[in-house]
Fold these 3 entries.
Entry 1:
Amino acid sequence: MSTPAPLTELEAYLAALLQGRHFEAAVIGASAGGVAALLEILPGLPREVPVPVVVVVHMLRGRSSQLAELFASRLAIPVREAGDKEDVAPGAVYFAPADYHLSVENDATFSLSNEPLHIFSRPAIDFAMQSAADAYGPNLVGILLTGASHDGAAGLAAIGAAGGLTVVQDPHEAQSPLMPEAAIRLRQPDLVLPLRDIRTLLARLERGNS
């Protein structure tokens, strides 16, 4: 019988941080440079990902989103565009559709709206994160990646205030550091990590029994 490989320093730290914590969902926000960043972290998701992963990426207005198709060919788990009134179910990655704000209702279903732009964006990261914080409370992971605006800073702060785990990409490696820097200024996140370590974190999430 082979001996398990020893944990790296990061893996040991994450194991201690996550011990006793269980999660019901993860929300990821990104803007400029976000697709490349997501291509580094999402393929690290386990084949049977234990939580739903909701992704909001800023897009140019007037263009349809091809993100679900792009990532479906690269991940071993279901990837789809979130639909209005659809259940937020574990085992899948959901992308916000173009030109709609995406929210998570308290009954763990999606809601789409065409409310005015928020910080020049629709979908807005703040909408998804703040609503998910209300729905999942401490059982939520929020991750904010590269971007060229401060959208997502308030949303991530709301997740932190609700007791959820907050993670920001290291601004020093971000293609556009404005978004992670804004989040750090507003409320210190639990973790500031490079993409390779965010990938490791996602792979270690455990789902609660509720």
Entry 2:
Amino acid sequence: MRICYLGPGGSWTHQASLDLFGPDQLIGLESASLFASFANDDIELACVPVTISVVGVTPYLDPVLSLPSVVVIAEYPKMLGYSLLAP
């Protein structure tokens, strides 16, 4: 099973995907490639943030809902932490 997540390795979506699905067969993609791959049935599952604590609804909610035959299977509230660091 191919599982894609939005963003690069180490992103919050990658971390949520690791928690939900484990490290096997995870593929990080940018948004256009992820949505096209899902629409073409090239991938079985996609992990995309639709809301975040900093800005609320992300720009990915509408593209997710407009995908053909999309089924939301889980909402995963990932606790985020931020640090302001200086030398």
Entry 3:
Amino acid sequence: MHKVLQSLQLSLLNVGYAHLDKHWNYDNVVSPFTRMYYISKGSAKVYHNDQTFDLKPGYMYLIPSFTYSRYKCDEYHEQYYISFFEEIKNGLSIFNLKSFVYELKAKDTDIAYFKRLLEINPNRALVNDDPEVYDNRPTLQTFKKKNEKLSSAFYLETNGLLRILLSKFIKDHNRLVIKNTTRNNLSQVLSHISENLDKELTINELASYCHLSTDYFSRIFKQKFGMRPNKYIQSKRVERAQLLLLTTDNSLKQIAEKVGLENLSYFSRVFKSFTGKTPGNFRKEELNV
């Protein structure tokens, strides 16, 4: 597991301090990056992963990438916020491999980390707190340039602080508890899926990869990840398509091929089943923000 974690890459998008009121009220927020908050004053609510979190002063909160969420503030609250991309080798997400808590009592050192990230990354605040504004392609395309402009010292410090803060939310036990052989480790299957999203993937192939029967493989996969393998594969294809639509100028046909859904009509149906929008409408709405 640690060898996998050694490939973890974290890239800062935004960091800032916000004064928010009842206008902070957004539904159907699904972003291709991870969010982290520290609440300093007031109260609000966030809904995700089938849970309701009462945001309260002195606590930190985590929302994984590509997670449906809803925000609501009835009166007023203030928060430090961080958004960042996370990726393990071959496009895998750490949220596939480890279990996380999403609410933690912050220590003085944690608060100092938020403040330090803001200090060494000025001018990275969100201009508008509406997700439909900041989840757009132009914003996402500029983050790499801003990170490259950091000094070597600040770049390394930023990455280290992000790692420390993210590590706070990881549960002590591994999410995957399976037989101790490489081929029976489902994390290897997730990596295999991520590497081959542009190809045909069958349950028989994945089960064989683990030296398991198809039925048993499907059962333990659902037990570990909450969905059948086919649905998981489709969800990963749609997630990658969303990111490509936001961050590249690739045509819909090129993106469909890159995510293993070469038939444009089928690609559109699958994409809409997960997002409620066709790929073309998704890109158009984001670009016209």
